[in-house]
Amino acid sequence: MKKVVVGLSGGVDSSVAAYLLKEQGYDVIGLFMKNWHDDSVTISEECPWLEDSNDALIVAEKLGIPFQTVDLSVEYKERIVDYMFNEYERGRTPNPDVLCNREIKFDVFMKIALQLGADYVATGHYCRKGTIQNEDETYQLLSGKDPNKDQSYFLCQLSQEQLSKTLFPVGELLKPEVRKIAAENNLITADKKDSQGLCFIGKVHLPEFLQQKLKPKKGIIVEVPSNAIQFSAVVPDFQNEREKLTFRAEKPVYNESDGKVVGEHQGAHYFTIGQRKGLNVGGTKEPLFVIDTDVDKNIIYTGQGKAHPGLLRNTLFIKEDELHWVRPDLALKVDETIEVMARIRYRQPLQPATLYKVENGLFVDFKDKQSAITEGQFAAWYLDDELVGSGVIS
């Protein structure tokens, strides 16, 4: 009998994943990850992990499976929290959920599971795994059947080795079906709301969280008028116009003289491109959005309205060392291109784009302008319903 360790989070999805695996005849063990108890940095006044841990235990008892808690807080602080602070300090906006999957759930946690004798690790993610039969077997990361819950984006940094040891039991189901299975089997998590917080931690008020390590520093907010920004409208011809691609991928560089000072802030590193809340500037015809931050000069640049040209770009760049192929056999060689569907954030509808491989990285050139392309976030690209690669936006 194959042994599977399920990451029981205390939510309905992982609860049903454990139930389904047991029904399929696997030897199932429930493992809860405790990822935070650092009193020097307060995540939240609430303690959601305690409630989640109790719910996970109750589900395990109901299913008649062994259960234990593993403390991964040291690794989580080093690999996720410290990384977050470092990225914000640099003026980038990290995605801790993508990193948590790559670094914690499918690395540290997976190694613990394998040490327990597991053949597989399973989670409650809404995605699917495919297998292509060839000499070595190639694994596919496929989007979940529920288009409203597809979580493949969050797993965009997984490797072939990680996928080979992973199962996604709820990936073929719709969310209402998952809740129905939980209710029919009297699982305590059947009606529990989905968590909205940081991966396996809970609710986080990000500005307060960041202020504990990144000290407030008063600076100015500059409003830049739409006509102060110029972009190339040329569609690049890859054969001889790489410079235009490079230009399209670059963010415009702003100066104080490009606009007028309209307010003050407490630290440019607290803000991200596309942000609207927290500026506390009134009196404009349309809402102000952050179009750029300069953490060195501690200036926030803003523009009025969602259609401000400072928010819109066609092309982004990913450096070679931050480029990842879930399917290494599909990796582009220098000067190769491929048409894909891509997204730059979770739940964004997939957008047509062309990948252009160059020596020092990869250009992702979208057919239509994208709003708030943000450094530090992940771009992911698909062929049909398969996520084949991703990278950190530069």
UniProtKB/TrEMBL annotation:
E.C. designation(s): 2.8.1.13
Subcellular location: Cytoplasm
Active-site feature positions: 100, 199
Family the entry assigns: Belongs to the MnmA/TRMU family.
Keywords assigned: ATP-binding, Cytoplasm, Disulfide bond, Nucleotide-binding, RNA-binding, Transferase, tRNA processing, tRNA-binding
Chain spans, region Interaction with target base in tRNA: 95-97
Pfam families xref list: tRNA_Me_trans (PF03054), tRNA_Me_trans_C (PF20258), tRNA_Me_trans_M (PF20259)
GO MF terms held by the record: tRNA-uridine 2-sulfurtransferase activity
Annotated segments matching region Interaction with tRNA: 149-151, 345-346
Location of the tRNA-specific 2-thiouridylase MnmA-like central domain: 250-303
Keyword Manganese in annotation: no
Site residues (Interaction with tRNA), renumbered to this chain: 125, 377
Primary residence: cytoplasm
Domain spans labelled tRNA-specific 2-thiouridylase MnmA-like C-terminal: 321-393
Catalytic activity as recorded in UniProt: S-sulfanyl-L-cysteinyl-[protein] + uridine(34) in tRNA + AH2 + ATP = 2-thiouridine(34) in tRNA + L-cysteinyl-[protein] + A + AMP + diphosphate + H(+)
Record keyword Nucleotide-binding present: yes
Source organism superkingdom: Bacteria
Taxonomic placement: Bacteria, Pseudomonadati, Bacteroidota, Flavobacteriia, Flavobacteriales
Protein name, entry field: tRNA-specific 2-thiouridylase MnmA
InterPro entries: MnmA-like, MnmA-like_C, MnmA-like_central, MnmA-like_central_sf, Rossmann-like_a/b/a_fold
Residues where ATP binds: 7-14, 33, 124
Enzyme class: transferase
Function: Catalyzes the 2-thiolation of uridine at the wobble position (U34) of tRNA, leading to the formation of s(2)U34.
